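Tokens in:
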């Protein structure tokens, strides 16, 4: 799989594997866009072509007239770890994760408290609260300037695990500074590794 000749052939195989795994939104035009973006990669860079496609599928859309962001509903959530829109960094993360399964991950009443953050130095502690599964949750995370703190994702993953849905929050870096997330079963994660050739980290 890793040494297939030609970007279109390799990306076509990746696209079909992702479709079989239930990832939506894959079109011929999107595959061609990824091929253009990846032309400088060596032909064996299967991982980067996979994450490039997943990143586009999971990045959501922005209405530039209102600057309102809407998360993807393709079964994957992806974002740049150097975040714009700092005031809603973790609110948008919860929105993106919720969109992975809007019925099972219906986070509500999300409140992001920056009163413990020094905006000039980018230091301090940020508190995020939300309601889920008829319970109130509150997470506190150390500020890292305009960078997303992965401890927040790990803490959320622990809450999800303890909920007993049988699914977990899975993660892979994109090879640069992007983050890619899934909400799936362990069997699905194992199938992903078999099909795409690299493992996902469970949070």
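Residues out:
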């Amino acid at each position: 799989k890793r040494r297939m000749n030609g970007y279109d052939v390799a990306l076509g195989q990746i696209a079909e594997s992702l479709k079989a795994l239930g990832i939506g939104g894959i079109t011929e035009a999107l595959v061609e866009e990824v091929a253009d973006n990846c032309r400088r990669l060596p032909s064996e860079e299967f991982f980067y072509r996979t994450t490039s496609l997943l990143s586009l599928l999971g990045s959501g859309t922005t209405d530039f007239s209102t600057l309102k962001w809407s998360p993807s509903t393709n079964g994957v959530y992806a974002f740049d770890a150097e975040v714009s829109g700092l005031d809603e960094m973790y609110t948008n993360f919860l929105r993106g994760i919720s969109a992975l399964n809007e019925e099972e991950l219906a986070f509500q009443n999300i409140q992001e408290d920056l009163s413990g953050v020094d905006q000039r130095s980018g230091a301090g502690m940020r508190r995020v609260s939300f309601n889920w599964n008829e319970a109130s949750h509150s997470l506190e995370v150390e500020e890292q300037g305009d960078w997303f703190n992965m401890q927040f994702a790990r803490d959320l993953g622990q809450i999800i695990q303890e909920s007993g849905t049988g699914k977990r929050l899975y993660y892979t870096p994109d090879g640069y500074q992007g983050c890619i997330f899934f909400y799936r079963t362990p069997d699905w994660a194992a199938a992903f590794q078999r099909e795409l050739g690299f493992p996902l980290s469970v949070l």
